[in-house]
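Notebook B, p. 112. Complex prediction, attempt 2.
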Amino acid sequence: MSKTYSLTLTIKRYDPDRAASWLQTYRLDSGPILRFVDLFRRINVEQDATLAWASSCEHAQCGSCSVNVNGRPMLACELLVENAVTLFGTTEFKISPVTVAPVVRDLVVDWERAYERVHRAKPYLIKPKDIPPGRTEHRISPQELARYEEATRCINCFCCAEACISGNRTFIGPNAAMAGIVRMMDPREEEKEERMDLLYSEEGIYRCHTSKACSHVCPKQIDVAHFVALAKEGAF
Amino acid sequence: MVKKLQIHSTLTCDVLIIGAGGAGLRCASLLHEKKPGLSILAVTKVAHPQKSHTSTAQGGMAAVDPKDKTDKSVYHMFDTWKGGDCSSDQNVVKKIVEGGWAEVQWLESKGIHFSRDEGGGISKRQFGGHTVDFGKGDALRAVFVADRTGKGIMDTAWGEALKGGSRFINTTVVTELLFNEGCCVGAVLFKAREGELVTVLAGATVLATGGSGQVFRITTNCRNNTGDGTAVVLRAGLPLMDPEAVQFHPTGIVGPGILASEALRSEGGILRNKESEPFMERYAPKMKDLAPRDIVARAIETEIREGKGIMNPDHQIEHVWIDLRHLPDYVHDVKLKEVASFFKTYANLDSRTQLCPVRPSNHYHMGGIPTNEHGEVLTSANTVVPGLFAVGECACASLHGFNRLGTNSLLELLVMGRCVGERVLSYLKEKQAHAPKGAGEATLARFAGYLEAEGRENVALIRQEMREVMTRQVGVFRVEKGIREAIASLIAFKARAAKVGISTKDMRMNQELLERWELDNLLDNAMTIAQGALMRKESRGAHFREDYPERSDEFQFHTLVSMTDFGTVSFGKRPIDLSIYESKVENYERFGIMSRKY
């Protein structure tokens, strides 16, 4: 028989109409492999249709459902109940929205505001190198690609930015910095100067205190701090 | 107290692109490249374009490399035609297949991180149903970005649209199309985050709203794929084409439905039922677990129906097992790394020592908004609706016929995204937008109705029941009695939906309101799928009727279905284009009506 957990979810809520914020507790029994998004859905069906929460792909490929669970930024779509119980050693969870973007309602934040940093880092080739004449592709060896390929797996869930001890006001943030660093390492980018101007600017990578919290919380297990370190050394 | 709803403002642009996934933003990128000053409004339902469903595509994108001496476009066209069970439009097949490598080159020049071969070129892999020499050998035809090809394409298309200057409106849905003198001149949008209804007047409107997988209980589709675009088109009095053509992937991971790749079986995974019996031997004695997608999906469903499935207590859904325990560590650690990690992440199972739960999962809708080969939307009389275009999964041109080959959807959304962009450019020279009378009134009435309705029904509960019914009765197996029951259930759900009282009255990020509207869209889509499935008394591609298990020449046409009132449908037919066959060019005889045997 499958194990049942009696869970207590205390969710930080916000109603924009009354500009009111409060903590609301939901109690529910759950099997071990329901995910936190499944719990939110069940709350909507069984207890409270008004609770708003965000998700889209629900398998860690879009980064829409980032929330703080007991203070740790995580994707609600891949957090299984039994793993959460093991990780935190409790069946009581406090869930609050991430703070890298303003809250719209309950657990839903305005991701557009968070993304402004990524947009500033220009997540595209500013000046793409021409494909060599007579060819339809560049030559990039698997070894060369492997130097920066990990960083291209970033889904901009902003968990790293949420955990970053350098704060969000002065530092552009680990994921936005990484968007620039990837293109410093990509041999097809010819505009390196402009990228360096941003990376070494007032909001650039020297704001990073090397706590490596980014790598620690990344749901995609990207060693974000490694890429920031490369940039600090200029070892693109 | 409900505040009186009103249209908050009117925006104008040259091109309105509704849906900012791969197809929509490929179109935007083309427009920016060809005409830099153009004002483009790109609308997405998700919180940011990068969160689109395109990002979840895994395996690859098919494209015939002109450098490859062994592969030819005609082979790819043949595979697509055969795979679609002779129901694709051949003019569209030719156009898209021939346009493939140019898109690979576009992506490469814009910074996609394709996996590379040892020589530093773009690496390719084999995919089911893709052959050389008309089925004689396997084709190496799919370029890929590791196991995240869709993400690579999404990031590239988004980057280029951003660079080109598209204005993005996120967390926003289309609720109504606007027409003036028969031309589409824009749309009404609901900006869910701000809680505002706005009117957009546009020189051209492109629908790229994606699929409707949420109609089914278990699906690989994201939470937002509720068929909004197709429902809005229906409400505009336009038809949908082939809605009954719905593909189910045989092995979705229970319960979230996440796709567990075919590689599981090609590497030697064995499907087993409750009694641990390797049941595929009974269904496909030769190919066993390597049989095509639809055969495996039907076998699994049969086992479950005969009581040989296993109930997952947490997700309350039945499944069978896939046994990977006998495979060497190397296969688990390297070859199946990503899928094995899915089982660990979503079911807490170690595929090395434990059986893993899988069942058929809704994957792709071949049907959609009918268009011609340029992506122009067509009426039920097959005439072009000026100013309205559709592209991507919401559209049906039709490349895939009644069954899509893996890696052909990414190909389609890029080539057609570009083609629609080109068509929009030539259209824009001719027309200017004017505001129609009564714009937005239908939306205002609809949303006011939702907010004012009273009753104790619950949207999420009705949705859950609808998805159960559709999965059970209009899913992998279909039979007249079951489909009729499903239609009756849908009508009952619609009546219950009217008794949903919404407690959140403030419009900002009102999830209750948004999901209430989505429920209507889901029901509309479900109804067209069920009605199409009932009408089509044959089995074709992914559409399988137990009471009519063979394909019939009598149904050698595309279904067109229109719906004026819920449940009341009228059908039309569109001929399947046979232009390759009729051209009598070399190899034309490969493009006749043939049986889909592998």
